[in-house]
Amino acid sequence: MYEPLLNRFIAYAKVNTRSNPHSSTIPSTPSQIDFALNLAEELKKIGLDEVEYNEDNGFVTATLPSNVDKDVPVIGFLAHIDTADYAAENIQPQVHRNYDGKDILLNEELAITMTVAEFPQLKNYVGQTVITTDGTTLLGADDKAGMASIVSAMEEYIKHPERPHGKIRVAFGPDEEIGTGALLFDVEHFDADFAYTLDSGIVGKFEYETFNAAQAEITFKGTSVHPGSAKDSMVNALLLAAQFATALPQEEVPEKTEGYEGFYMLSSQVGTIDEVKATYIIRDHDKRLFENRKRHFKELVDQFNSTFDQPRLSLKLYDQYYNMRDIIEKDMYSVDLALEAYRELGIEPDVKPFRGGTDGSIITYKGLPTPNIFTGSENLHGKYEFVTLEGMEKAADVVMKIIELTAAK
Ligand SMILES: [Zn+2]
């Protein structure tokens, strides 16, 4: 049904839209602007209305106008333009049709193979069209697969005006991977009643619970003195930072937790005897436990400072996003509708608390409930990333089924 889906995905995937966490521009990289402008042209060409590129936030939005006489809710669908902070230069998607279930040679020259021993889930895709990298970059199925599925579903509706649908809004935005894109999303202008991101993994996944998230940046100030005369005067910021890291609960780290268990994670630490800068992330699904974690972190900083005659640690602690469940569970309509669509299509819903955040975590708190639908992709953010055409088709099916069910109610 979605003839152009594969080609559309490949065309999107080939463009380097890597975001840059160290940039202060919006979007974080100019290539995302070029991509968005081309996308806007494509959306106009397939026949969507109100196609707009907003240069203040980097989002492309468009409308599929209602073709029914009654009032039905306006549904939004979103995907992100950028790809993770991983090699994205010269992406060469490889298409493996009628996949035979064996190891996949990604790159003959460099002898890079994706093996079934290492990735046993490959067995689930026998007979399907598997799209991989050439072993040197990521694929960017996160989230070009989501984009391609949404655009292809819109194109289907335009080609088949006899199918009833309400008003649909679509949005494609930058910088999801660096957690900033959705902060500037204009929910009022988008004007949907509820929305979905297509930004999850394998077929069946559905998420409406995410972490509450905060980031802590600590600077450890040392006193650097020649080691020969350092007695009673040197304060080694490197050791101080190491002591701080080991004073945190050692079992509450990502590698030792799962499900609803929260954690602290040291994500970077650089410095010298004189000064160390460390970054931690703090995560918990439960708002109360999340607040406790932040409090514990602050208290530990104070405790360390109290052992010196001057403050040696300075802390910048800020919230990044919140668990969308706390909002969505007040009205489960968007969740129930999506799961009904999954079941009608014979897709077994796999609903688990997501150990991360999505654009929806931020957008939901702006007032637009936005759970997350699968894209059919796996092994995201690296050279073993892949997606199947069948998975992308199912994601497009879910989009269309949600629209169809809404128009029929
Ligand atoms: Zn993503």
UniProtKB/TrEMBL annotation:
Q: Which Pfam families match?
A: M20_dimer, Peptidase_M20
For this protein, what is the EC number? Answer: 3.4.11.4
- What PROSITE patterns does the database record attribute to this sequence? ARGE_DAPE_CPG2_1, ARGE_DAPE_CPG2_2
Q: Where is the Peptidase M20 dimerisation domain?
A: 208-306
Q: Which reaction does it catalyse?
A: Release of the N-terminal residue from a tripeptide
* Positions that bind Zn(2+) 1: 80, 142, 199
**Single GO molecular function:** tripeptide aminopeptidase activity
Taxonomically, the superkingdom here is Bacteria
Coarse class of the primary localization is cytoplasm
Catalytic machinery residues: 82, 176
Recorded hits in CDD domains, A to Z, give:
M20_peptT
Keywords in alphabetical order: Aminopeptidase, Cytoplasm, Hydrolase, Metal-binding, Metalloprotease, Protease, Zinc
> How is the cofactor bound here?
Binds 2 Zn(2+) ions per subunit.
**Which EC class heads this enzyme's classification?**
hydrolase
Residues that bind Zn(2+) 2, according to the entry? 142, 177, 381
The protein's location, in the record's own words, is: Cytoplasm
Tell me which cofactor or cofactors this protein depends on.
Zn(2+)
Q: Which HAMAP family does the record cross-reference, listed alphabetically?
A: Aminopeptidase_M20
Write out the similarity annotation: Belongs to the peptidase M20B family.
The protein's role, per its UniProt record: Cleaves the N-terminal amino acid of tripeptides.
Protein name per Swiss-Prot or TrEMBL: Peptidase T
What organism does this protein naturally occur in? Answer: Carnobacterium antarcticum
